[in-house]
Amino acid sequence: MLSELQASHYIDPAVFEREQTHIFSKLWIFAGLRTLLAEPDAFLTRTIGGIPIVIQNLSGVLKAFENQCAHRQMPLQFEEYGQRRLACRYHGWTYDADGRAKTIPDEQTLYRFTSEERSSLCLREFAIEVIGNLVFVNVHETPIPIEQQFTKEFREQLADISSHFSSQAIHTCVPARYNWKLNFENVLDANHVAYVHPRTFRPLIKNVAAQPAEIASETSVDDSELSSLSFCSTMAMSVQPWPWHAMVEQYGPEDTYHNYFIYPNVNFISVGGLVFLIQQFDPVAADRTEVRFTLMTAKEKQRIAALPAILWGHLKGEKRVLDEDLVLLEALQARLHAGGRPACHGTYETQLRRVADVYLRLMGDKA
Predict the structure, then answer these.
(1) Of 81, 243, 270, 335, which is the most buried if we count CB atoms within 10 A?
(2) What is the domain-level CATH number for residue 335?
């Protein structure tokens, strides 16, 4: 069966711009971890649907604003993560918890705003939802209800597992020369593991060949619904024991691999309930993606002096697996061309066909 997606969906800059409008500017997009925003004025910055965003802990409440000063559009926060008041480094403007300009140095002398102009000096605010320790942002003026994108059962699953995160995490961002959709399709396709990861990932997984066929039956909602694209899958895996495992609060049964597919661009996995990895495929251009890794262990029962080294070691292992995928996906992207044949799907690729169907509906290309 031929895919409904054409090569143009992966290589055309015009299609990419429409995706920013119809998908990333309309859906709830994962932005970061609540655990990293626990302290006053802790912040993280992201770009969603082409809009620079800052999420900040303001008086104990998480707020999402456009990361541009109302004065001359200078970014309020430069770093990806940090702890700093919501203030512009260019001319010293500061903002309150509602995003209103709070103080403007030498306001009466230098600016002389009218009362109407002064009241309009406010940051654009965006909707925010926190599911467990996962923070989502929607930049649309009228956000869709989050239950339209994620079922109640799925949100409860995310809240449950993310409540086991340690407060420490390690991050990295890997540039890749392929379309973001190729990466999401790749993580849905367990059949490739035996061929692409025979020495890294495949030896850990049991009965991996059966997994793709099982995916199709795990979604209990209408196949045409957006919420059908986000779900959890589990499989048995062999987890090598390490002494530090006894020092954390393990999630779920031992030797289990949890895989959460969060549409449109996140694959969240748990290795034995001991290590958690969030992979996000951020679109940069039609042929470029930033793969963002956030990795943490389960909550510590006691202080683990070697935790930074443990996180670094696991991150390097996950990066090796990504590199194996990256070689093939970049080769695939480089050879896609206008007028080329669409992909041919087998019976096990039901979920890939579902993703394509809902994607075209979101894009307005299918009724």
Answers:
(1) 270
(2) 3.90.380.10
Task: State which residues form the domain around 82.
Answer: 28-143
Rounded distance between C-alpha atoms, residue 56 and residue 45, angstroms: 9
Q: Counting Cβ atoms within 10 Å, is residue 275 exposed (0-12), middle (13-18) or buried (19+)?
A: buried
347 and 246 co-located in one domain: yes
Identity (one letter) of the amino acid at 75?
P
pLDDT at 304 over 70: yes
How many whole angstroms separate alpha carbon 46 and alpha carbon 85? 17
The token pair that represents 359 in the structure block: 């994607």
- At residue 98, what are phi and psi to the nearest 5 degrees? -100, 5
Q: Are 204 and 158 in a shared domain? A: yes
d(CA 101, CA 86): 10
Specify whether 127 is located in the same domain as 189. Answer: no
Q: Which of 143, 165, 192 is the last residue of a domain?
A: 143
Residues 6+ apart with CB under 8 A from 16: 179, 283, 285, 286
Q: Is residue 17 part of a domain?
A: no
Convert the pLDDT of each residue in 52-97 to its tens digit.
Answer: 999 999 999 999 999 999 999 999 999 999 999 999 999 999 999 9
pLDDT band at 204 (very low <50, low <70, confident <90, very high): confident
The Cα–Cα gap between 150 and 261 comes to: 11
Alpha carbon distance 79, 301 (integer Å): 31
* SS3 category, 275: strand
Give the span between the Cα atoms of 135 and 147, in whole angstroms. 15
